[in-house]
Description:
single chain; about 600 residues; alpha/beta; 22-stranded mixed sheet; five-stranded antiparallel sheet; about 20% helix; disordered N terminus
Amino acid sequence: xxxxxxxxxxxxxxxxxxxxxxxxxxxxxxxxxxxxxxxxxxxxxxxxxxxxxxxxxxxxxxxxxxxxxxxxxxxxxxxxxxxxxxxxxxxxxxxxxxxxxxxxxxxxxxxxxxxxxxxxxxxxxxxxxxxxxxxxxxxxxxxxxxxxxxxxxxxxxxxxxxxxxxxxxxxxxxxxxxxxxxxxxxxxxxxxxxxxxxxxxxxxxxxxxxxxxxxxxxxxxxxxxxxxxxxxxxxxxxxxxxxxxxxxxxxxxxxxxxxxxxxxxxxxxxxxxxxxxxxxxxxxxxxxxxxxxxxxxxxxxxxxxxxxxxxxxxxxxxxxxxxxxxxxxxxxxxxxxxxxxxxxxxxxxxxxxxxxxxxxxxxxxxxxxxxxxxxxxxxxxxxxxxxxxxxxxxxxxxxxxxxxxxxxxxxxxxxxxxxxxxxxxxxxxxxxxxxxxxxxxxxxxxxxxxxxxxxxxxxxxxxxxxxxxxxxxxxxxxxxxxxxxxxxxxxxxxxxxxxxxxxxxxxxxxxxxxxxxxxxxxxxxxxxxxxxxxxxxxxxxxxxxxxxxxxxxxxxxxxxxxxxxxxxxxxxxxxxxxxxxxxxxxxxxxxxxxxxxxxx
Length: 600
């Protein structure tokens, strides 16, 4: 029995030894596997980290190059610099820039393609490579982690957003000394700086915007200093004389959020600011502190942004526009034919000596200055964009649809009225639009200034508001100092900047009290002068858009009624009437893609 016991015991010791060896080998194998797994994991983490870093570098290069081109385009507002880039391709990148972000990160970005869409639109394709420069030689070597990005961006000269406003000042917006019944604005107001109301609280039936701007001197914090007064929707509609946009009425414009509401929301007044379908709707006060309702409820904490103005400095562009213009609208929205279809740009006035209308323009252009005076029976006739190389002097009645461009100043020497004005009242918005589409509309755009009133009688008012220190200097996009506007300076014509090229005595002989201006006013410099000098206040049915505003009102009230026929009805739409107002630069992102590398 013992022997049998001994026989059994030996195999047990052998089994234990084998088991121990197996455990040892398994432990060793598991440890090796864990080491390999850990090493592999670390390599993966390193690769991911390098991919993220190279992606960051590529994005930095893309952003730098994109903003470099945008700044150039924003300043020049033309495509002359783009012509050379038409030769760009992936094998022939152009305008390449490189950068060192530190920590071994580098980028190189250039233009690799261009598509010409139209005279007002070009698409540029940028390609950027970001890499980890492991040997720190400043070159992209084989095996170095990299990411290649490509971004296509459309650069356009498009309808400018400044024309969404009844009042727009590129520098500081200001309204001094107006109470609730003294200034009534039926439209939105905006400044690319502070917007100050003082000496009273006017009525603004619309939104008010200000923007932080460190290019102004002194820099603007971008605040609207007070919240104005506003009317209720029902009261607004009850006193509307027809020249102001409608106020929101759910029975007409649809429930908020509906398809019908989306069609009209951007061209009506609504006292109640809110967020509808993801964007702001109704009257708000918006500045560097965000967007809020008139009652103070914050709708969006995001600060407002500067809105670029069109630049009329190169008047030759508008001469070309006038010379090449052809009316392309065959029919109106109601199906009736457009009598001006196929015609070019022109301006005509009645000649008493000849007892007929005479055309002042040749192929849409007037070489020199012109005096345009219309009566209710013999109005000024305008069609399309007409360019004067000198001054435009205007008063009286106007008939037609178009914009007058002045190579120097526009001088308004009396009331300007539409022969056939629009009427925004009614219960069917579509019918209202179809009727107003055919009504008169005028743009007055000056490379110099828009001056209102009899310049022979200008004294402390309004010149105080047209000269430093009231006007302020600013920096351009490249940091160059632009001096403050000074209306009393003598220009290359030998005239003070506020004066006309016609003599003061002649301007005095034709000047009248200005009680009404039916027009969209645009100027590269100052918009202002003396209005309402004969009593009765003044009403502007349209917009005033300028760098410095200097209107002095001699009688009350002042009313501004925005003409919504020039406004888009939301993103991707066009205005009811296109009168070829000045265009502004816009940058629209298109395709963005990772060609190689990147994290994932």
